[in-house]
Amino acid sequence: MGGDDAPQCVISGTALAMQNDPDLRPILVGDENQLKPLMQNNPILHQAEILHTEDMVTSDEVPSQALRTGKNSSMRLAIDLVKSGEASAVVSAGNSGALMIMALMVLRTIEGIERPALAALFPTLNGPSCMLDLGANIDCSSTNLVQFAAMGDAFYRVIGKVDRPSIGLLNVGEEEQKGSASIREAAAILSDPAIQMNYAGFIEGDGIPMGEAQVIVCDGFSGNVALKTAEGTSKLIGTMIRNSFRATIFSRLGYILARRSFQQLRDMMNPQRYNGAVLLGLNGIVVKSHGGANQDGIANAIKVASDMHRHGFMDDLKNGIARSIDAIEVAQSEKMKSKEETS
Amino acid sequence: MGGDDAPQCVISGTALAMQNDPDLRPILVGDENQLKPLMQNNPILHQAEILHTEDMVTSDEVPSQALRTGKNSSMRLAIDLVKSGEASAVVSAGNSGALMIMALMVLRTIEGIERPALAALFPTLNGPSCMLDLGANIDCSSTNLVQFAAMGDAFYRVIGKVDRPSIGLLNVGEEEQKGSASIREAAAILSDPAIQMNYAGFIEGDGIPMGEAQVIVCDGFSGNVALKTAEGTSKLIGTMIRNSFRATIFSRLGYILARRSFQQLRDMMNPQRYNGAVLLGLNGIVVKSHGGANQDGIANAIKVASDMHRHGFMDDLKNGIARSIDAIEVAQSEKMKSKEETS
User: Fold this and answer.
1) Residues pairing with B118 in the sheet
2) Would you call A237 and B237 a contact, using CB atoms and an 8 Å cutoff?
3) Which of A37, A342, B66, B111 has the fewest C-beta atoms lying within 10 Å of its C-beta?
4) Which residue is closest to B246 within chain A, CA to CA?
5) Residue B200 pLDDT more than 70?
6) Per-residue confidence (pLDDT) for residue B160, from 0 to 100
7) Chain B: residue nearest A219 by CA?
8) Residue B240: closest CA among chain A residues belongs to which residue?
């Protein structure tokens, strides 16, 4: 029931996802009086289940209030399906804050994970990269950052189909002494071979779109700023390109000639292809679609969720977390030892 | 003597700046044996002074070491000229870290300013905006952020020739409760009418390239990440545009037709036009040119420095700081009062 053009857009996106993936078994959670008429014309949707509820979380609701009063909302019931094991994942295009807080309260974090993180893919010169955290946590300790690295590692393995994705730590310089104490401590832990990650060192903001790492780890403040700045810059330049092509009769003709060659750029900049941010670190798969996603975007968010389930993301993540917990403990005990020696 | 193509590039940039501004009186600080032969062919440079020294700070030198051993370096002597009043401003394309630490130690901060901040202009949909801090301070208190706002306000008034530039605080959302405590406190102080700033509220990363504020205030970590991410994204899309035009014979022909219309986009994305980051908050004007700047970039950095001097930046800044100190004190005493009342 969530998103700018709901439930129409969610339903047509679900139909598209079912066409692409015949094994998909969607459960649509919402008001059947609204859903059924929209589903009638598409035979593929007759295989989709409906879990009926008239209650829903609105887009302007304060998250804490949604948590208290939304016990029968479509969002809450969908999360409950993951908790009970009736669903393998939940996908929502609704209120982000409410989804995050409800999912955290219902599903809880995996043992060993202090805080969940929001992750998403975005286009770079070297194919898609993943960045986390994107705004769930403003301040992050070195332990948080190392856990984000383990979560991003498992996520990229599943979605990017890469065995050992490269992991970069976002910083304001590439030299060892740069950045905050928590970043430098996280770097020391990630460099430990016991953690079994393909750690690529510090990367700076300009390294993000250049694809210098496949997984970029950062606190939620700088991650949110970086991703939104990149989106805004793409939008600005996209506007300038359109204006340039429209400026004169010659440039319009030029556009007609160059149009096909610009398809790759248009595809790369198409946000629908990257729709589906993931709340990592919970006991269950939670995918957040952009509220303005079209049916392609919704289908993509559903694909992210089903890929994570099929490729055993949860087990992979638990193993990665176990290794990182060990490495963090070793690093901390060594730090204590060296402190004792110097004192 | 600093920069990738020094001293040739610095000298030709100085000549260009002198052509554009007949009142400019440059003092070139460096090795006259290298400088003189490069200056001979251009008569305009015969009016430039040379302050001779053979010593210089190299690009790979650690800043703290440069500070200790570089007492006779060209960088240090140039800063000393500002300290003694013989020069109105210093412009350097050399080692950024060394310039920052040397300028801070020699010139010291203006009374009332806790920490200097690095500021630069960049292109947006609504003309140039200015962002600070860009990396001089990793962690920032609310007082730091308010002082950055006062510095950015005075800087943009001079460079952007706008009476009351709009001031935005970078955050991860536009709602009041978003972000860290220091950002929320800074927002409360900046909203105070006594501070006499045109405060525009929180802006998110995508608002930066959209030009939602003329001055964007943030801590040095997120500012550095945002600016570099925007630069990297521009570079990525620029590469994609070039590849698209080169892809086929049709697109090449399209390029020839559309070329003139793309000039505006090329101009907007040309980093030389925005060369010249400023270290604000010191008792003197310090401008850092990018090491890779060409002569246009150097001339632009010199213009930034001379504009700041001519338009009375230092006095304007001191007035702004005085107002913001008053407003910070009022805000803090009110906070104390409300604490006393609640306890």
Assistant:
1) B279
2) yes
3) A342
4) A261
5) yes
6) 86
7) B222
8) A265
As a whole number of angstroms, the distance between CA A156 and CA A152 comes to 6
- CB-CB neighbors (< 8 A) of B226 in chain A: 205, 225-226, 229
Residue among A207, A227, A239 minimizing CB distance to B232:
A207
Nearest to B254 among A135, A172, A258 (CB): A258
Q: What percent of chain B is predicted at pLDDT more than 70?
A: 98
What is the CATH number assigned to the segment(s) B114-274+312-343? 3.40.718.10
- Per CATH, B1-108+282-311 and B114-274+312-343 having the same topology is answered yes
CA dist., res. A89 & res. A109, Å (int): 15
* Per-residue pLDDT tens digits for A264-311: 888 888 888 889 999 999 999 999 999 889 999 999 999 999 999 999
Q: Give domain limits for chain B.
A: 1-108+282-311, 114-274+312-343
Residue B236 with chain A: CB contacts under 8 Å = 124-125, 209-210
CB A159 within 8 A of CB A303: no
Over the stretch A203-235, which tens digit does the pLDDT of each residue have?
Answer: 999 999 999 999 999 999 999 999 999 999 999
Please list the alpha-helical segments (H only) found in chain B: 8-20, 32-39, 63-69, 74-84, 96-107, 142-159, 181-190, 220-246, 249-258, 263-269, 295-310, 313-342
The complex's ipTM?
0.89
- CB count, 10 Å around CB of B174? 12
pLDDT single digits (tens) A135-193:
889 889 999 999 999 999 999 988 888 989 999 999 998 777 788 899 999 999 999 88
